[in-house]
Write a structure and sequence with these properties.
single chain
Length: 189
């Protein structure tokens, strides 16, 4: 059980901060849950809960740095346009927008910081982030769980989880690179 405790700790430690690549570790935890080495429900709770805690921390940093960040973003027309675009979308679409941001490259970081900077309510942000993290944790752990069951082996499950993670990251990067940036507002002459 000591090894299992370390695995839960490692999952929490690697999932809380955004931009830490841990998809292979999460898939491995799913595979270990399928093999009976870890508790599936505890793996899901640790992954989703620590990701939500990380989102709350990002929001808090955005709240503390909000005025300085807003001033910095408004110095250039392109940055101001991006902030205005995000503020408009989060105000107009609310919780569904927060959920959707989780699944964009760097969306967890950008979404949390922007929500705080534009003063989106914390409770609504955490609701959206909680829904997103529950969904994300479920499919991330399921990849390893079902991969381990289908391939009947630890190393096969790790390999499958790693390859699928790389594939998802590659597709997300391709989509984001082809998405046009918002146009800066025209200046009044």
């Amino acid at each position: 059980m000591d090894g299992a405790l370390w695995m839960y700790f490692l999952l929490a430690l690697s999932t809380a901060p955004p931009l830490v690549p841990n998809a292979a570790l999460i898939a491995t935890a799913g595979m270990l849950a399928q093999a009976g080495e870890l508790d599936l429900w505890l793996v899901l709770a640790v992954v989703a809960g620590s990701a939500l805690a990380g989102d709350a921390l990002v929001y808090g940093v955005g709240k503390l740095a909000g005025p300085r960040v807003r001033d910095w973003l408004q110095r250039r027309p392109t940055r101001k346009a991006a902030l205005d675009w995000m503020a408009d979308r989060i105000t107009r679409h609310g919780v569904p927008f927060v959920v959707g941001m989780r699944f964009l490259p760097s969306g967890r970081l950008i979404g949390g910081l922007t929500a705080a900077v534009v003063e989106y309510p914390l409770r609504r942000f955490l609701l959206g982030a909680g829904i997103a993290e529950a969904f994300w944790a479920s499919y991330s752990v399921a990849l390893g769980y079902w991969g381990g069951a289908a391939l009947d082996g630890a190393w096969s499950g790790v390999l499958l989880g790693t390859l699928l993670s790389l594939l998802v990251a590659g597709v997300a990067q391709l989509i984001s690179s082809r998405t046009p940036a918002p146009e800066p507002p025209e200046r009044a002459s």
